[in-house]
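Support case: NDP complex. Customer-provided input:
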Amino acid sequence: RKGNVIITGASSGLGLATAKALADTGKWHIIMACRNFLKAERAAKAAGIAKENYTVMHLDLASLDSVRQFVENFHRLGRPLDVLVCNAAVYLPTAKEPSFTAEGFELSVGTNHLGHFLLSRLLLDDMKQSDFTSKRVIIVGSITGNTNTLAGNVPPKANLGDLRGLSGGLNGLNGSPMIDGGDFDGAKAYKDSKVCNMLTMQEFHRRYHEETGITFASLYPGCIATTGLFREHIPLFRLLFPPFQKYITKGYVSEEEAGERLAQVVSDPSLTKSGVYWSWNKNSASFENQLSKEASDAEKARKVWEISEKLVGLA
Ligand code: NDP
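Agent response - structure generated as follows:
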């Protein structure tokens, strides 16, 4: 049978390119989990993804009710779940004031981390029941959350601190909207959310890999400077960022190539190692990359997991 993969945020950028790459193999059925149903349908058609290879389902990660509803709707489809790709993200680098999710969490961490945290926890049982040979949960990470890299050292740097803001609920009412308890900074909130994504992947690995055989992995697909992720940035940045990445840093990767990379992490038989953060070298060969000190801190991963459980109502 075909593999069944859920990809969040498959209506544009990396998610769409990955859906296309997997659909073209004829071996996958893609559940495109998207906040804008019509946009996703149009994007799938425009990308030339064959009708029988995908299903669009509504999911708004900025609402925990929507996450729970999505899981119920997925169950009604009656399909097994073999691979889950947590890909969707928002990036608000120029925001002066924080925005919030339906439950009142700062929007970047609320969407990128907490929404995906609840989704992946609720779908774990489905994955356990699947008889697929290589079951995987993939959480897209980023170089920008890794302060052991050049890109990760561009201020404001990721830093979860002692997690006091996260413990306080990130709501800006009785505390800070930032995980470390500091003042709101949209670019930092995104980087912090990516650190949470990478810590969550490793904590999943420690808690569930042996028992379930599921591969948990993260990746940095390269700098896909053309995606909608930068839509909130100032126009001059959007103009100069792609050529800067292409010719100066040489970290640029096309959406198509990035989609091929994530598709490898979904289905390549040689990428089954669990607890790993994948990157690609200049020849587009995958290798196991090192995470920064904070992004590989096991104690912090456990704390983020436990606090997140409380925030999303799992504990
Ligand atoms: P895009 O903005 O093109 O894609 C992000 C997707 O997330 C969109 O489909 C968007 O939906 C969706 N999304 C946003 N908010 C929600 C929500 N509340 N509920 C459901 N879906 C939502 O950016 P990219 O493709 O670049 O980003 C994809 C992933 O790649 C992210 O995890 C990002 O952190 C990561 N990444 C990107 C890099 C880059 O250089 N671009 C580098 C490293 C990592 P909609 O279409 O409706 O807007």
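The mean pLDDT is 95.

Case will auto-close in a few days if no follow-up is received.
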